[in-house]
Amino acid sequence: MANDYYAALGVARDATGEEIKRSYRKLARELHPDVNPDTETQERFKEVTAAYEVLSDPEKRQMYDLGADPRSPGGAGPFGPGAGGFGFGDIMDAFFGGQQSRGPKPRVRRGQDALIKVTIDLPDAAFGVVKEIQVDTALVCTTCTGTGAAPGEQPVECSMCHGRGEIQSVQRSFLGQVMTSRPCPQCQGFGSVITHPCAECSGDGRVRTRRTLKVKIPAGIDDGTRIQLSGEGEVGPGGGPAGDLYVEVTTRAHPVFQRRGDDLHCSITLPMTVAALGTVLPLETLDGTEDIEIRPGTQPGHVVTLKARGVPHLRSSGRGDLLVHMDVATPTKLDARQEELLREFAAVRGEESAQATFESPEKDGLFSRLRDAFSAK
Questions:
Q1: By the 8 A CB rule, do 111 and 243 touch?
Q2: Distance between CA 356 and CA 367 in Å, rounded?
Q3: d(Cα 234, Cα 137) in Å, to the nearest integer?
Q4: What is the pLDDT of residue 126?
Q5: Domains of the chain as residue ranges with CATH
């Protein structure tokens, strides 16, 4: 052989691929035409590049070690000089760690995660429930069991890249000749070709199927919380492992209660007479019927708290409270008899003339009571 590629790179004949790459980087930086533009240095740079082209390719290196020069007219074959153009990224691969030989990519890959939303009622969010949900995801094709090939068939080695998954070429540039690798266009980089694809999945190894899953929703769950179901998402290409399924929970609006954290709030509007005289009213809570004591003289904004009648804490023991806000309705339409009785009542109390007490909202009045009731929790 006229060219000693090992000597050109300054490495031993048993040098590893990483040693060859490291030596080429060092020499290429020293001999680059931008650094040493003289003709002799440029020729030396071409020799180093040619040596790296051969020794960085396992097949070409083996051919060279057996006594043939892959770059010679008889040994160049489809990878000979002048094959195609040159891109800046090709030499950058050699300088900054790009792999000259990536190998075929696997057909079997992990599937994507999936997201589904489920809406539940407030009692279910409070005490937990097991819900059945319908999920449309990709599952392993039962006909080909994920191979993508028709029954009795298997993927065969690609005739273009011979199983490597990539096509290598030597490209000529003003810097010399650089070897590049590209995904094989015939097998799309897999290294094998499915000549007889499965009719059920069209060679993908998976089919979309609707199935029913049971999801356990824990007590105390709040809006927007996501429950992760490992391995229940999309099956990957080639029958690869499934991704995860995330179930996002939302709660329907309740006709009586509003949730704030783990506390529940509701309002009761009382007639003026009931607020003045007091009574006991039944309230249907999440736990059943509870009697609410309305004390005589109840004022608007008064709050009755039922301890531990709210939503259970999700990550600890105990429950929130149920806060009942009082509102007092003043009658707007009175008949003659009602107005007469009301005036007699005002006279008895000495309230015939309009009287009122004005105070700052910061004092212990209506506004402060309302503020405190809504910001207590």
A1: yes
A2: 16
A3: 5
A4: 96
A5: 5-81 (1.10.287.110), 114-167+180-251 (2.60.260.20), 258-375 (2.60.260.20)
Q: Which amino acid is at 298?
A: T
For the four alpha carbons of 111, 113, 117 and 121, in that order, the dihedral sign comes to positive
Tokens of residue 24, six digits? 């080429």
> Above 90 in pLDDT, residue 352?
no
Q: For 250-305, how does the pLDDT look when each residue is reduced to its tens digit (9 = 90+)?
A: 999 999 999 999 999 999 999 999 999 999 999 999 999 999 999 999 999 999 99
| Euclidean distance between CA atoms 253 and 281, whole angstroms | 24
| The pLDDT of residue 301 | 94
Residues in the chain: 377
CB 118 within 8 A of CB 248: yes
Between strands 226-229 and 279-285, the pairing is unpaired
Write down the pLDDT at residue 73.
Answer: 56
Distance CA 346, CA 95 (A): 98
Q: Which amino acid, residue 128?
A: G
Q: Judge whether 32 and 42 are in contact, CB under 8 Å.
A: no
Residue with tokens 């990878």: 79
Q: Which pairing describes strands 192-193 and 156-157: parallel, antiparallel, or unpaired?
A: antiparallel
**Tokens 């209506």 -> residue:** 366
pTM for this prediction: 0.62
Q: What is the 3-state secondary structure (H, E, C) of the chain?
A: CCCCHHHHHCCCCCCCHHHHHHHHHHHHHHHCCCCCCCHHHHHHHHHHHHHHHHHCCHHHHHHHHCCCCCCCCCCCHHHCCCCCCCCHHHHHHHHCCCCCCCCCCCCCCCCCCEEEEEEECHHHHHHCEEEEEEEEEEEECCCCCCCCECCCCCCEECCCCCCCCEEEEEEEECCEEEEEEEECCCCCCCCEECCCECCCCCCCCEEEEEEEEEEEECCCCCCCCEEEECCCCCCEHHHECCCCEEEEEEECCCCCCEEECCEEEEEEEEEHHHHHHCEEEEEEECCEEEEEEECCCCCCCCEEEECCCCCECCCCCCECCEEEEEEEECCCCCCHHHHHHHHHHHHHHCCCCCCCCCCCCCCCCHHHHHHHHHHCC
